[in-house]
Design brief:
This protein is about 45% helix and about 20% strand. It has about 270 residues and is an alpha/beta fold.
Length: about 270
């Protein structure tokens, strides 16, 4: 349906799950791909898969919430792959609790990963995007670039126990719609995709072993099996989504098929509503 042969894509949170599926999809469509994640081992494994199908690829492990990392990441993509045409801000995790048990650190961590990090990546990319668009306009060319930010049904509908996560993901929508208006003159389509229940490690059935380590914090992840069953029963499609299901609308927004769409939020939930 489309080719991304001349494009360079940057995907954050690409070591596993949805990010990995997006990166592989972009590589198969012909894009050169830069992937990043905080977990260096899984990232290297994923990059090995991407390198098998991408015309060019690179990876760099790092903490996307580190203020110095976003400029380094963007500069490496431009230097190593020759430009930057597609940015997918996918990195994220959940750190849940009811509001009276949510600490300032916990709440801030959700804002840092879900909205501050994407803001920094896009700010770091701004000069390259602006300068490229001006040069192309002087040459009489219109070249579209793409930004896809990831949000959630928790942002649009709310979710008990997720004050921080829901707030961060809701802020992504404001960032998306503002950048769509700022960067339209540079031929950049800025959109967001919001996910419902997607089969990743963050929504695995909850057990005592369902944990991740994040900057020295042991964070429980997963969902009670009864809750998963309830959500699936409420979905018109009767199932959770796969990472490949989630990657589909992101790839659409990265493609020429979305050249006249900007500032939109496309919900990928299987029709589910909380």
């Amino acid at each position: 349906m489309f080719s991304l042969d001349s494009k360079v894509a940057l995907i954050t949170g690409a070591a596993r799950g949805i990010g990995r599926a997006i990166a592989l999809g972009l590589a198969r469509a012909g894009a050169a791909v830069m992937v990043t994640d905080i977990d260096s081992g899984p990232l290297a494994e994923t990059h090995g898969e991407i390198a098998g199908v991408a015309r060019r690829s690179a990876h760099i492990a790092g903490d996307i919430t580190d203020a110095a990392f976003a400029p380094e990441l963007v500069n490496r993509a431009i230097r190593d792959l020759g430009g930057l045409d597609i940015v997918v801000n996918n990195a994220g995790y959940t750190w849940d609790n009811v509001i009276q048990k949510t600490t300032d650190e916990q709440f801030q961590a959700m804002l840092d990963i879900h909205v501050t990090a994407p803001f920094r990546v896009l700010r770091a990319a701004a000069a390259h995007i602006r300068d490229s668009a001006k040069r192309e306009a002087a040459e009489g060319r219109r070249v579209y670039r793409k930004v896809v930010n990831i949000t959630s049904i928790s942002a649009t509908d709310g979710s008990p126990g997720q004050a921080g996560y829901s707030s961060g993901k809701a802020a992504v929508i404001g960032l998306t719609r503002t950048l769509a208006k700022e960067w339209g003159r540079y031929n950049v389509n800025v959109n967001a995709v919001g996910f419902g229940l997607i089969e990743t490690r963050l929504v695995q059935p909850l057990t005592n072993e369902s944990k991740i380590d994040m900057k020295g914090h042991e964070i429980k992840i997963g969902v009670q099996p009864a809750v998963i069953e309830k959500v699936i029963a409420a979905s018109p499609l009767g199932r959770a989504g796969t990472p490949e299901d989630a990657a589909g609308p992101v790839l659409f927004f990265c493609s020429p098929l979305s050249d006249f769409i900007t500032g939109e939020v496309l919900m990928c939930t299987g029709g589910m509503r909380f």
